[in-house]
């Protein structure tokens, strides 16, 4: 499959801080991709380098085959970025801003019908002639998304787009972004809401301290880390300890609860048998349904 | 994707936006400097009009007007590019420009031309208002137009430099208060440098504003402190130097893309 975005051994250093440390990443066309990581992991630096707002210290980045430095004009035509902060130009109304933004990309009057469509699809029609200053936070967020779409980019990057957005608007934005993905747009998203990434993204990369600690399809990541965990509540009173053969299975103890990471499903039998022999009662048994958040916490070591 | 037509549309759009930006606040950007210039004109011509004659056959009030026009033109050209850039940086909306395929040259030309247009517009309105007071024929339109465009361009380019360099409004205001204001007041707007002691004449000749005002005034009266051709050459050199600095800053992404 053709690549929409390629990072090749990209590094970014600020004075003594290694913000991005040799990242290589390939995002195929048509993907719904999530870039996850705690604050300061380097997600925004990655997006800013992709957008041409920050120059990488070394390595190369391309969008739809265009290098973001050498062929910056073509690369910027290929990508629409929705910034994290609610920035706006206080002098103009929504429609004027959208027209200007399209104009910077060389789009003339022939693009007006697309601007109308974007306005309609983001429910901005009633506010089209309202000054940007007078819009509510949610409306400003929609206008920002509209601005990123006016030049019809094949790749759309959203940097924390639902931060501070109410539940209803969040749902509407996501259904809109999903539609765009279905129409063939490649979507890259950074978010703190992991359940969102889990529900929306086909694949994710998790970052920590400027490095990618995992990159796979969302399904694979969940399978790899999640599906074989067993949580037992054990009656370990009267100074009983876990039998030695069970201790060898990787586990985590939280009070009376023990979460075992099973290599194979038959380990369950082994554990229960061994506990039975040691006369340790199982008070409760639960298959732990680990979500992306658990994977994320495990990988980022928090 | 990127062709000549789209490049033109991109630059034209940015120019249009920059012009509309000052037009939306026309009272602040045009009416206010015009009122200031008219106040200068009324006060100085009232106090000195009868007593001072700088050029033979030219009333002091008439002498004053080209200087006031040029001073306002220069100050407003500077304000346009510098305040637009600083405001966009502080508000964060500069990102909308930086995300576009606009080249540094397109960026420079659009900001420069918008500055020249605002400067000339303010200057033109002052000229029209001044015609109610005095008769002010233009003897050499070539010099009037050349100095207006080059002077506006020079300060527009300087405004781009100041706008990129400044991270806050007070830093930009410092450029206005400590550079633009003294240079324009000490450039011979209100006097001929021949009336100054030798040492101040020499110092005045280091001030590029002096050449812009002296040359511009020649366009009206056919009289000046030094040859308008020399002034035009010096102003052109200053314009080129500042433009090169501004373009290099934009090309490198200094304080914008990092």
What proportion of the residues of chain A is helical, as a percent range?
25-40%
User: What can be said about the biggest beta sheet of chain A?
Assistant: 6 strands, mixed
Instruction: State the CATH topology of the largest domain in chain A.
Output: Rossmann fold
- Tally of domains of chain B: 1
β-strand amount of chain B: under 5%
By CATH reckoning, the class of the largest domain in chain A would read Alpha Beta
Terminus-to-terminus distance of chain B: 27 Å
| Coarse structural class of chain B | mainly alpha
The overall average pLDDT of chain B, rounded, is 93
Encode the helix/strand succession of chain B as letters.
HHHHHHHHHH
Order of helices and strands of chain A: EEEHEEHEHHHEHEHEEHEHEEHEH
Largest interface: A-B, 30 and 34 residues
The number of helical segments of chain B is: 10
User: Helix coverage percent of residues of chain B?
Assistant: over 70%
Shape of chain A: elongated
User: What overall form of chain B do the CA principal axes indicate?
Assistant: elongated
**What is the assigned CATH homologous superfamily of the largest domain in chain A?**
P-loop containing nucleotide triphosphate hydrolases
Structure, explained:
The complex is a heterodimer of chains A (about 300) and B (about 260). Chain A is of the alpha/beta class and about 300 residues long. Chain A folds into 2 domains: about 220 residues, 3-Layer(aba) Sandwich (Rossmann fold), CATH 3.40.50; about 60 residues, Alpha-Beta Plaits, CATH 3.30.70. In chain A, about 35% of the residues lie in helices and about 30% in strands. In chain A, the strands form 3 sheets. Chain A has a 6-stranded mixed beta sheet with strand order 6-7-8-3-9-10, with helices on both faces. Chain A has a 4-stranded antiparallel beta sheet with strand order 2-1-4-5. In chain A, strand 4 and strand 5 form a beta hairpin. In chain A, helix 3 packs parallel to helix 5. Helices cover about 75% and strands about 0% of the residues of chain B. The radius of gyration of chain B is 19 Å and the shape is elongated. Chain B has one domain. The longest helix of chain B has about 30 residues. Chain B is mostly helical and about 260 residues long. The two termini of chain B are about 25 Å apart. Chain B has 10 helices and no strands. The chains are: A alpha/beta (about 300), B mainly alpha (about 260). Chains A and B meet through helix 2 and helix 3 of A and helix 1 and helix 4 of B.
């Amino acid at each position: 499959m053709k690549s929409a975005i390629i990072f090749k051994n990209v590094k970014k250093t600020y004075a003594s801080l290694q913000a991005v440390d040799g990242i290589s990443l390939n995002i195929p066309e048509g993907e719904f991709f999530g870039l996850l990581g705690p604050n300061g992991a380097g997600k925004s630096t990655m997006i800013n380098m992709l957008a041409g707002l920050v120059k990488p210290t070394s390595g190369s980045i391309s969008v739809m085959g265009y290098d973001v430095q050498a062929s910056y004009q073509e690369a910027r035509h290929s990508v629409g970025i929705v910034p994290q902060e609610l920035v706006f130009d206080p002098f103009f109304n929504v429609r004027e801003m959208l027209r200007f933004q399209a104009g910077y990309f060389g789009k003339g009057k022939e693009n007006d019908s697309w601007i109308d469509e974007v306005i309609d699809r983001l429910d901005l029609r009633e506010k089209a002639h309202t000054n940007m200053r007078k819009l509510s936070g949610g409306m400003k967020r929609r206008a920002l998304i509209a601005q990123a779409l006016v030049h019809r980019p094949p790749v759309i990057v959203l940097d924390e787009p639902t931060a501070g957005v109410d539940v209803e608007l969040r749902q509407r934005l996501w259904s809109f972004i999903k539609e765009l993905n279905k129409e063939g747009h490649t979507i890259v998203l950074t978010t703190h809401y992991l359940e969102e990434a889990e529900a929306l993204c086909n694949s994710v990369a998790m970052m920590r301290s400027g490095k990618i600690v995992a990159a796979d399809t969302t399904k694979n990541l969940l399978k790899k880390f999640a599906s074989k965990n067993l949580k037992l509540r054990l009656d370990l009173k009267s100074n009983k300890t876990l039998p030695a053969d069970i201790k060898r299975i990787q586990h985590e103890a939280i009070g009376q609860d023990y979460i075992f990471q099973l290599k194979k499903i038959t380990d369950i039998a082994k554990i229960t048998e061994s506990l039975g022999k040691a006369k340790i009662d199982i008070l409760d048994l639960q298959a732990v349904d680990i979500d992306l958040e658990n994977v994320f916490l495990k990988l980022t070591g928090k | 994707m990127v062709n000549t037509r789209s490049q033109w549309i991109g630059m034209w759009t940015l120019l249009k936006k920059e012009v509309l930006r000052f037009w939306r606040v026309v009272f602040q950007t045009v009416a206010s400097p015009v009122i200031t210039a008219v106040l200068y004109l009324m006060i100085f011509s009232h106090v000195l009009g009868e007593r001072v004659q700088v050029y033979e056959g030219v009333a002091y009030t008439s002498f004053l007007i080209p200087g006031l026009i040029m001073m306002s033109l220069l100050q407003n050209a500077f304000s346009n590019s510098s305040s637009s850039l600083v405001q966009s940086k502080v508000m964060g909306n500069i990102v909308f420009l930086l995300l576009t395929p606009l080249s540094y040259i397109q960026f420079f030309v659009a900001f420069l031309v918008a500055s020249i247009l605002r400067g000339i517009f303010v200057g033109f309105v002052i000229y029209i208002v001044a015609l109610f007071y005095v008769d002010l024929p233009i003897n050499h339109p070539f010099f009037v137009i050349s100095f207006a465009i080059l002077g506006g361009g020079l300060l527009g380019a300087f405004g781009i430099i100041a706008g990129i360099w400044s991270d806050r409004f007070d830093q930009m205001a410092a450029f206005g208060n400590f550079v633009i204001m003294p240079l324009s007041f000490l450039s011979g707007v209100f006097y001929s440098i021949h009336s100054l002691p030798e040492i101040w004449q020499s110092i005045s000749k280091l001030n590029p504003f002096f050449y812009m005002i002296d040359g511009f005034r020649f366009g009206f009266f056919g009289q000046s402190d030094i040859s308008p051709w020399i002034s035009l050459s010096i102003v052109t050199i200053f314009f080129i130097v500042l433009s090169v600095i501004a373009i290099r800053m934009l090309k490198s992404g200094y304080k914008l893309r990092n």
